[in-house]
Design brief:
The chain has 73 residues and is mostly helical. It is 82% helix and 0% strand. The chain has helices spanning 3-24, 26-33, 39-68. Helix 1 packs across helix 2 and helix 1 (3-24) runs antiparallel to helix 3 (39-68). The radius of gyration is 15 Å and the shape is elongated.
Length: 73
């Protein structure tokens, strides 16, 4: 595995974990970011969490396919 693919896989796991945490527990993110605990804030944080989780899936999928295909960069 090349350094760039390892970096992509690491970033994918970090983004996926952060996104899943924000998606499931938006109250924790509200308190951590110092945001007011309003209904609109929770919706916005859930959307941001899903976008981060999707980024993790996207990057992780590309890293996995590249590795399984035997690509050399």
């Amino acid at each position: 595995m090349t350094r760039s693919i390892a970096l992509m896989a690491g970033l994918a796991s970090a983004a996926g974990a952060a996104g899943l945490t924000v998606l499931v527990r938006p109250g924790w993110a509200c308190r951590a970011l110092g945001l007011p605990e309003a209904e609109a804030t929770a919706y916005a944080l859930r959307i941001a969490g899903m976008m981060l989780f999707a980024l993790g899936l996207f990057l992780g999928g590309f890293a996995a396919v590249f590795t399984l295909a035997g690509g050399v960069a």
